[in-house]
Write a structure and sequence with these properties.
The complex is a heterodimer. By secondary structure, chain A is mainly alpha-helical. Chain A contains four helices and no strands. In chain B, α3 packs across α6 and α5 runs parallel beside α8. Classes of the chains: A mainly alpha, B alpha/beta.
Chain lengths: 119, 238
């Protein structure tokens, strides 16, 4: 029983933590929505764990805990793939920006040279 | 010859020992061209030495890798409306005496991309170390098999590009070790590649950016990059 209480407490504190992050604008809604969903689901499943047990059994898992480990690790692998996509996108944008900066700097240099030759 | 505007792009990363000489060599060659050095976030005085030698320098705020540096040059060529871009390495391995050799077929419209090769035609001189030649031979075989065009020196960075190739590569150019992979990209975009014989020199100062070459890492990485490049789609640009 105490394990269950612990699980619910952790799930609730994660949920509250995400809410707080949104409130302090540390998370933008684009990313926060998913986290709210996941932590909210955690709280619900923590309270009504019989659904989880039944669902795990129907999928053929002998132990509910095995199902949880399986589901969570699959979820985390998927999440890290998604994060890698974001990372690549940011990287690409960063490179583009660096190239643009170099080109603009050269343009400024040319304009400055033009001006100084006029005066 | 006709009056097509030519831009020589010289990517440079920590090449203060070579860059001044390279810039002067290109400027004093008989070829009518402008020249731009792309400083790829060097930590030495590559920028000041290149400027002192009279080059326009595009100064990247951090290191992008050779692909990103050369691509910066392509973008500059686009903005400035050059007809032909030529990649010329900043380490002094390339011989400006061969600039016309690689420019002429592009000017004549014989190909979209011309690669200066150490291995085609008569043996003109230095051809790299044995291990590198094996590596080059492998990529040569792989690319020829995949693209159907004979490429004998796929790692050569001594290349000329016409307007169409500039336009494509300004938008979509491989990152890390772009030379072999870009042959695959060229095929994907329907750009015609061609090789001409040139002579190269061993570098005199500093380290090659592909000192990895001895390790299997480079081979595997570029092989994967080439194979994955085949899966990519052709992007369309405005």
């Amino acid at each position: 029983m105490s394990v269950r209480v612990l699980a619910i407490m952790i799930a609730v504190s994660f949920f509250v933590f995400v809410l707080d992050l949104i409130r302090r604008e540390k998370l933008t809604f684009k990313y926060a929505a998913g986290w709210l969903l996941v932590t909210g689901l955690g709280v619900i499943l923590g309270i009504f764990d019989q659904f989880l047990t039944r669902f795990a059994f129907q999928l053929g898992f002998q132990l509910t805990s095995n199902f949880i480990f399986f589901a969570v690790s699959s979820g985390l692998i998927f999440l890290s793939l998604v994060l890698t996509i974001f990372l690549c996108q940011q990287n690409e944008r960063n490179d583009r920006m660096a190239q643009k900066i170099a080109l603009l700097e050269q343009e400024i240099r040319e304009m400055r040279d033009e001006n100084s030759s006029k005066s | 010859m006709n009056d097509q505007k030519v831009l020589v792009i010289i990517p440079a990363y920590n090449e203060s020992g070579n860059i001044g000489r390279v810039v002067r060599e290109v400027r004093s060659s008989a070829v009518a061209c402008d020249l731009v050095v792309v400083n790829d976030g060097s930590k030495d005085n590559t920028v000041s030495e290149a400027r002192a030698a009279g080059a326009v320098v595009l100064d990247l705020p951090f290191n992008l890798g050779i692909g990103g540096a050369v691509q910066t040059g392509f973008r500059y060529a686009m903005v400035k409306g050059y007809d032909i871009a030529c990649q010329f390495d900043g380490d002094g391995q390339h011989d400006a005496g061969f600039l016309n050799t690689i420019l002429d077929p592009v000017k004549a419209g014989a190909a979209d991309i011309v690669v200066g090769s150490r291995f085609v035609g008569p043996d003109l001189g230095w051809q790299s170390s044995l291990v590198r030649r094996w590596g080059i031979g492998f990529f040569s075989w792989l690319l020829s098999a995949l693209t159907g065009t004979a490429v004998t020196d796929p790692t050569s960075g001594f290349r000329a590009f016409n307007r169409e190739a500039i336009r494509v590569f300004a938008e979509d150019y491989p990152d890390d070790f772009p030379e072999p992979e870009s042959v695959m990209s060229a095929k994907r975009y329907g750009l015609k590649c061609m090789e001409v014989p040139v002579k190269m020199r061993p570098r005199s100062h500093g380290h090659s950016s592909i000192r990895y070459f001895r390790t299997l890492y480079y081979m595997i990485k570029v092989t994967f990059a080439i194979l994955l490049n085949r899966l990519k789609q052709r992007r369309s640009f405005a």
